[in-house]
Amino acid sequence: MRASAHDPFRLNRDLVRYRKGYPGESLNAKSSDNVKFYRNQIKSEPHGEFIETMHKDWATDYQELERNHSYIQWLFPIHEEGMNSCARVLQRHEAETMRKDPEIRERIKRSYSMMLGFYGAKIVDWETGELT
């Protein structure tokens, strides 16, 4: 029987891999597409757009956010391949660069706010993470 996304054993394996720092993950020291995307230098793929355009034009365009799912792994990259094979796996050096760059941190917050709006919520306090 094939494991589903709701399989507790699969979820546990994923959690263990996360906690152990993704053992066996192939690191690519030259990869910087996630940083470039968050610096508004490249578009997401496929059917992509620059992040500033997403924030400006898509923030309240819930039909676009619902129709086009290829952007989500660009907004919130992870350390493993996800459903969008065109999105780049987040490399450790990229995550560190993104944490240190105030412009990128601000864009991440805008991405989070945009998605919260899509889900019908709003950030009340950035320090506590309180939502309405």
Protein model, in words:
- With 132 residues, the chain is mostly helical.
- The chain is built from seven helices and two strands.
- A two-stranded antiparallel sheet has the order 1-2.
- A hairpin with a 4-residue loop joins strand 1 and strand 2 (130-131).
- Helix 3 packs parallel to helix 7 (102-118).
- The mean pLDDT is 88.
How are the SSEs ordered, and which strands pair?
Blueprint: H1 8-19, H2 33-38, H3 51-58, H4 62-67, H5 72-75, H6 92-100, H7 102-118, E1 123-125, E2 130-131
Antiparallel strand pairs: 1-2
Helix pairs in contact: 3-7
Low-confidence stretches: none
* Percent of residues in helices: 40-55%
Distance between the termini: 41 Å
Strand order of the largest sheet: 1-2
On the 0-100 scale, what is the average pLDDT?
Answer: 88
Q: Which sequence of SSEs, written as H and E, runs from N to C?
A: HHHHHHHEE
Q: What gross morphology would you assign?
A: globular
Short account of what is shown:
This protein has 132 residues and is mostly helical. It has helices at 8-19, 33-38, 51-58, 62-67, 72-75, 92-100, 102-118, and strands spanning 123-125, 130-131. 47% of the residues lie in helices and 4% in strands.
Characteristic terms for this protein:
mainly alpha
